[in-house]
Design a protein that fits this description.
heterodimer, A: about 80 residues, alpha+beta, SH3 type barrels, about 15% helix, B: about 725 residues, alpha/beta, Rossmann fold, six-stranded mixed sheet, two-stranded antiparallel sheet, 29 helices, 11 strands, about 5% strand
C-alpha cells in the first residue's frame, strides 16, 4: 500500500503507523506518546475550526495539529 | 522565567523542612492527570492544587505525613509522559528521581490507560530499583469494564504493585504499608525488570558501561543508564549528570573514544545515531504494550464509546462553540446573580461594624480627621473590596473547577485552537482567557499550562483584554442605564446583554489581534507544536479537596487585593479631603486630566476614578459617584435609576457610556493582576508592557468612537 500521512485518513479510518519523520522535538514528543511503528491510530474528532483533529491510539485521545500530524506516516 | 513561578513554593517548602526531620523520603511520579496530587493531598493533608489545568505542579511540592511513628517526606514531582526528553517538567522529574535520592519512588498509573502509563514506569525502572507502582482510578476502570491483574504486573516487573482509589482515603492504606516495607527493606529488593534492547545496542551499551565503571565508582544500574545517555548524545542530560555526580563524560577522552567506536559499529550494522533514539523508545513502548496486554482485560472493547459520543457533540462544528459559549454564560450568570446576596450581606455587616467603630472613635475622643481617615478611608475601601470581590470569586472558581474536573477545559482548547493558531499561539490560551473572565490574576497564573515560554508570555500579556468579574457588573449597569434605558421590559435586558456581549467579543478579538501582533514583533516566533490530551470525562470531586483548594485560590487572590486596597483607601480619602484653596486634590487632578479625557469622550473625574480604582475595578463606579456628589468617601448606590440620574446630570451621554464601557474592558490591569504578572514573569519590563497594551487600546478606541460620533452625530 502507498504510504500516506495521518492527515489523509478520514474520520474513523484506522491507520497503522509506519514511520515518524520530521524535526527532532516534535518527533520525540510523538514517540513519547507511544506512536511507534505498528501503532494503530484513528482520527475521531475534528475541531470546529477544522484543525486540529483528535486521534485515538493506545487507549488515549490526543489532539494534534495538521502541521505536526503530517510527520506521522501510516499504511 | 520559569524559576520565578516556583519561587514561592520553594520558599514555603524550605520552612517546613527546617521544622521537621523525616526518616524517609518518597517521590511521587506519574503521567499528568492520574490523580497524583489527590494522593499527595490525602496523605499529607496539604492543599496542593489538583488538576492539570490551573495549578499543575511546576516545581516539586513537598509534604509530610506520619505513619506508624515515623515521619515520611513526600515529594510530588511534575506529571510527565516520559522522562527522556528535555521539557522543563521532564527535567525536574528526571533530576529528582535520579539525583534526589528518594528512599522509594511511587509511580502512580491510571488503570484506564495502563499501557501508556507503563511507558513511564519502564523508563523509571532504568533509574531506580526502589519502585512502587500505584494503580489508581480502579473505580473508573471498573466502570469501563477493564480488569487489571495487579499480581501478574508485580510478577513481571518484580516490583510491589498496589491498587487504590485515590479519592477514597481508606484505600491508601495498602500504599502506606507498601511504602514502609520498601523503605525499610531497601537492600532486600530483587533485581527488578530490565528493558532489553536489541542485541547490537545492548553490546554498545555494555561497552560504554564498562569504561564508565572503570573510570568512576558508580553502581552498575546507574552506569548502564548513563551509558545509554552517552550513546544517545543528549548534552543537557549529560551535563546534569556531570554536575550532580561530579564526573566528566562529554570531554572524557577514553569514554568518548569507546562511545565513538560503539556508534561506528552500530552504524555499520545499519543503526545511525539518529535512529538510535527511535529504536530505544520503540523498545520501551513495545515492552509496555506487551506487558499491558498480559495484565489488562477489556471486557468491553468499546469502553470509550460513551465519551466519544459526548465528544462528538461538544466538539461538533455546529454545536461545539455555541455550547461552549452557553456554558460560560451560565457560569457568569450564576456568579453575578448569586454573588448579589452574599455581597449585600457583607456590606451591611461591615457597615454595622463601621458605625460601631465611629461610635468607639468618638468615645475615646479620637480626633475626627484621624478617625475619618482610618474608618472612612482605609476601613471602608478595604471592606468594600472584600464585599464585592469575595462572593463572586467564591462562586466562580468552584464552578470553573467543576468544568476542569469534568475534563471539559481541554475540549475548549481543542475547539478554539484553530483561531489561536492563526495568531501564532496555543489553543490553551483560550482556557487562560476563560479564567480571566473570572479573575485576570488567576488567568495569569493559569498561563503556566502553556508549555512554550513565548506563547505563555503572550497569554499573560493579553489576559487583561477580557473583562473579569469585577468589571462585569459595572458594564451591565452602564449598558442598562444608557443603552437600554429608553426601552422597557424584556427587550431592555436583551439589548443591554447584547451591548455587554459586544464589548466582550471585541475583547476576545483584540486578544487574538494583539497576540498576532506580539508574535510578529517583540515576541517573534511561530506557534509551537500543539499536542493535547483530551482525557476521559470524570465525575467531579465536589467535596473536600476541591472546595478547599478553591477557597485557597480565592483567599490567596483576596489577600493580594487587600494588601493593595488598604493603602489605596488611604490615598483616595486623602485625595478627596485634602485641597488647595478649597479645591480637593481629586478635582485638581480631574481638571488636569480633563483635556485628554475630553479627547476620549470622557471627563477628568472618570479617568481619575479609573486610576484610583487600580486596587480593584469594583470601586471605579463608587469613586465616580463620590466625585460627582462632592462626597468625601465611597458611595454605594443600589438604585440603577438614581445612578443614571446622577450620571446624566454630570453630562453623560450615550457616547460617554460607550467609551466608559470600552475603557472598562481596555485599561491597565488591577494592582493584584499586576503583582501576579510581576511574580509570573519575574520582570518589571513585561509588567509595564502588560500595563501599556490594554491602556493604549482603550485610549485609541475611545478617541476613535469620539471622532466618529462628532463627525456623524454632533
Amino acid at each position: 500500500m502507498k504510504e500516506k500521512t495521518v492527515n489523509e485518513l478520514v474520520l474513523e479510518e484506522i491507520g497503522i503507523v509506519s514511520k515518524i519523520v520530521g524535526e527532532e522535538t516534535i518527533k520525540r514528543r510523538l514517540l513519547d506518546l507511544g506512536l511507534i511503528e505498528g501503532t494503530s491510530i484513528k482520527p475521531v474528532l475534528i475541531s470546529p475550526s477544522g484543525d486540529p483533529r483528535a486521534f485515538e491510539f493506545r487507549g488515549s485521545l490526543i489532539a494534534i495539529r495538521k502541521e505536526d500530524a503530517k510527520n506521522i506516516k501510516v499504511k | 522565567m520559569n524559576f520565578f513561578m516556583s519561587k514561592k513554593e520553594k520558599i514555603s517548602i524550605r520552612q517546613k523542612e527546617t521544622k521537621r526531620k523525616s526518616s524517609y523520603t518518597i517521590a511521587l511520579a506519574g503521567n499528568p492527570n492520574v490523580g497524583k496530587s489527590t494522593i499527595f493531598n490525602n496523605l499529607t493533608g496539604m492543599n496542593q492544587h489538583t488538576g492539570n489545568w490551573t495549578g499543575k505542579t511546576v516545581a516539586n511540592a513537598t509534604g509530610y505525613f506520619e505513619y506508624r511513628g515515623e515521619i515520611y517526606k513526600l515529594v510530588d514531582i511534575p506529571g510527565t509522559y516520559s522522562i527522556m526528553s528535555h521539557s522543563e517538567e521532564e527535567e525536574i522529574a528526571r533530576n529528582y528521581i535520579c539525583f534526589g535520592n528518594p528512599d522509594a519512588t511511587v509511580v502512580v498509573v491510571d488503570a484506564t490507560s495502563l499501557e501508556r502509563n507503563l511507558n513511564l514506569v519502564l523508563q523509571i525502572t532504568e533509574i531506580t530499583d526502589n519502585l512502587i507502582i500505584c494503580v489508581n482510578l480502579l473505580d473508573e476502570a471498573k466502570k469501563k469494564k477493564i480488569t487489571i491483574d495487579l499480581e501478574a504486573l508485580s510478577n513481571i516487573l518484580k516490583v510491589p504493585v498496589v491498587g487504590v482509589i485515590a479519592r477514597k482515603k481508606k484505600t491508601l492504606n495498602n500504599l502506606l504499608k507498601c511504602m514502609r516495607t520498601v523503605c525499610k527493606e531497601k537492600e532486600k529488593i530483587d533485581k527488578i525488570y530490565q528493558i532489553q534492547y536489541q542485541e547490537n545496542i545492548e553490546k554498545a551499551i555494555n561497552q560504554v558501561k564498562e569504561i564508565i565503571m572503570e573510570q568512576y565508582s558508580i553502581e552498575e544500574k546507574l552506569a548502564r543508564w548513563i551509558s545509554i545517555k552517552v550513546l544517545d548524545g543528549e548534552v543537557r542530560i549529560l551535563k546534569e549528570i556531570e554536575k550532580q555526580l561530579h564526573i566528566e563524560l562529554i570531554n572524557h577522552i577514553e569514554i568518548d573514544k569507546v562511545k565513538k567506536e560503539a556508534l561506528e559499529t552500530l552504524e555499520k550494522e545499519g543503526i545511525y545515531p539518529k535512529e538510535f533514539k527511535e529504536k530505544m523508545v520503540s523498545t520501551i513502548v513495545k515492552d509496555a504494550e506487551k506487558i499491558g496486554k498480559k495484565v489488562c482485560q477489556f471486557e468491553n472493547k468499546d469502553y470509550a464509546s460513551k465519551d466519544r459520543k459526548i465528544d462528538k457533540i461538544l466538539t461538533s462544528k455546529k454545536y461545539g462553540i455555541p455550547i461552549m459559549i452557553l456554558f460560560l454564560l451560565l457560569i457568569f450568570w450564576i456568579t453575578i446573580v448569586g454573588a448579589n446576596y452574599p455581597s449585600q450581606f457583607l456590606f451591611s455587616l461591615f457597615g454595622n461594624i463601621q458605625e460601631k467603630l465611629i461610635e468607639f472613635a468618638t468615645y475615646i475622643h479620637c480626633p475626627e480627621w484621624l478617625s475619618n481617615m482610618l474608618i472612612l478611608g482605609v476601613y471602608q475601601t478595604l471592606t468594600w473590596v472584600i464585599s464585592v470581590m469575595l462572593p463572586p470569586m467564591a462562586i466562580f472558581f468552584p464552578l470553573f473547577t467543576i468544568l476542569e474536573d469534568l475534563g471539559y477545559l481541554p475540549r475548549i482548547a481543542f475547539n478554539m485552537d484553530g483561531f489561536f493558531k492563526k495568531a501564532c499561539c496555543s489553543g490553551k490560551q483560550m482556557i487562560t482567557m476563560c479564567m480571566g473572565f473570572g479573575c485576570n490574576s488567576c488567568g495569569v497564573t493559569g498561563c503556566r499550562i502553556i508549555d512554550s515560554p513565548r506563547e505563555r508570555l503572550i497569554a499573560i500579556l493579553t489576559n487583561n483584554l477580557v473583562p473579569c468579574n469585577g468589571r462585569f457588573p459595572f458594564l451591565i449597569t452602564i449598558a442598562t442605564i444608557f443603552i437600554a434605558g429608553t426601552i422597557e421590559g424584556i427587550a431592555s435586558s436583551i439589548i443591554s446583554t447584547i451591548a455587554v456581549m459586544g464589548v466582550i467579543i471585541l475583547g476576545i478579538m483584540m486578544t487574538l489581534i494583539i497576540s498576532k501582533i506580539l508574535s510578529k514583533t517583540i515576541l517573534k516566533g511561530m506557534s509551537s507544536s500543539f499536542v493535547l490530551e483530551l482525557p476521559p470525562y470524570r465525575k467531579p470531586q465536589f467535596l473536600k479537596v476541591l472546595v478547599r483548594s478553591i477557597f485557597d485560590r480565592t483567599i490567596f487572590i483576596l489577600g493580594r487585593a487587600i494588601a493593595v486596597a488598604a493603602p489605596a483607601g488611604l490615598v483616595i480619602w486623602l485625595f478627596a479631603n485634602i485641597g488647595i484653596q478649597g479645591e480637593s486634590l481629586l478635582t485638581i487632578i480631574a481638571n488636569f486630566l480633563d483635556p485628554l479625557a475630553n479627547l476620549m469622550g470622557l471627563d477628568g473625574y472618570i479617568l481619575t476614578a479609573f486610576i484610583l480604582g487600580i486596587p480593584a475595578n469594583e470601586i471605579v463606579l463608587p469613586i465616580i459617584l463620590m466625585c460627582y456628589m462632592q462626597g468625601t468617601s465611597l458611595v454605594n448606590m443600589e438604585d440603577t435609576f438614581a445612578i443614571g440620574e446622577i450620571l446624566r446630570q454630570n453630562g453623560w451621554t450615550i457616547l460617554t457610556a460607550i467609551n466608559v464601557m470600552l475603557f472598562t474592558v481596555f485599561h491597565f490591569p488591577c494592582a493584584t493582576t499586576l503583582l501576579t504578572i510581576k511574580k509570573e514573569t519575574g520582570s518589571w519590563k513585561w509588567t509595564a508592557i502588560s500595563f501599556l497594551i490594554p491602556t493604549a487600546c482603550g485610549i485609541v478606541f475611545c478617541m476613535l468612537t469620539s471622532l466618529v460620533y462628532h463627525i456623524f452625530v454632533v
